[in-house]
Amino acid sequence: MLLTYLLLLAFVEPISHSVNTRRNNVCRHFRDYYYPDDNENCYYDPDTTLSIPQLIEKYAGKVELHNVTTEDGYIITMFRIPNGNRKGVILLHHSIATHSHIYLWQGNNSLALTLWRDGFDVWLANQRGTIFSDKHVNMTKYDFAYWDFSVHEMGLYDVTSELELIQSKTNGSQVIFFGHSLGSAIGLIYSALKPIQASKYLKTMILLATPAYFEHGTSLVFLFIRLSSYIKAFMDLIHLGSPLILLPFIIPVSRVFLRLFPFILFVVNVFVWQCCGYTPSETDPTFFNYDGAIYADNFSWKTLAHFGQLANARNRFQMYDYGEKENLKIYGQKIPPLYPLQNITVPTLLVSSYNDTLVSLKDCENLYQQLSPKAKVHGHWKISGLNHLDYHLGLHRKEIFVHELLEFLNNLK
């Protein structure tokens, strides 16, 4: 009976929302979400209901959509905020379980639009498997085989195809690669496996909270991540390649739950603290609204399992482990090879935070020490006050990080 009621509400809610378009959906304090209507601390934010192209058009006036097919057949969608190459071209890569919207989550104050206003030609990648990049030349996302990819394939194939397209659209301009979390690991793998091509296509890499080593992380999420290979083995038995394959159904039902039980919004915030680092002074309840709190996207179990293997390996940034027999067939050795970080020659800036419990500053320093002198040219920024997600959500992200980032980019030669 309850399920029937929730299903009904899931379809009625969007209709009622479209009729009453000014219904408050964002509040300044978590307690205000209990009574959002006729509450002076709540307001209607139309940006929460806009698509990525709509958001970009609203604030930048122009947007381009580009599709590119990878060597292994995945069709990747990128959004572009064109700017005539006045200062340079920058490619933004997002973290796991999200898509490029995370760089637009804050509307006009988002990083993507901040970079565009500062004069950059901004490209937003959407990793394979996300709702914008869920197509393949001969498979669908409902095929189990579609999800047979990890971080490795995204670094090996996706970045190459994206950069080749960007080069063709920007008269061969070198690109600034900007990655956060999974996005930074993808850039690291690409530049390690294809160093000559990377040196040709990339001007520099800016890598935030790069999940390569996991010796010092204290996040409670590790209790789950370290079991992810076992979870994947079970999911393989039932042929479920992604945990969020039912996302189109989950999101409307979740919106209903959040309206009925708004305390879940604070629970989501607590989960972020447990996952990413305890930074209450950076918490902004306006981001944990009825839409933001359920902001998620598809990823493969194999991607999560790859991170689980890295977490268990602790000090080995290695390729996917298929087991001794398969490793011998694929790699010619029983254990997975390490990614050849010493091959990276692209000037790289690493950024990490003392408050990040998922990707610790010590582990990022370990990564920095593995890089070649050519790659180390921009150093390792060690910042305080932001957890793993606060680069996007923190109240003081501009003062702590964004302003310095813009200064760095404007001085880049």
UniProtKB/TrEMBL annotation:
Q: Which InterPro entries match?
A: AB_hydrolase_1, AB_hydrolase_fold
GO terms classed as biological process:
lipid catabolic process
Annotated signal sequence range: 1-18
Instruction: Give one Pfam hit by family name.
Output: Abhydrolase_1
Top-rank taxon of the source lineage equals: Eukaryota
Annotated GO MF terms: hydrolase activity
Q: Domain named AB hydrolase-1: which ranges?
A: 89-212
**Sorted alphabetically, which keywords does the UniProt record give?**
Glycoprotein, Hydrolase, Lipid degradation, Lipid metabolism, Signal
- What's this protein's family per the entry? Belongs to the AB hydrolase superfamily. Lipase family.
Name the chain's protein: AB hydrolase-1 domain-containing protein
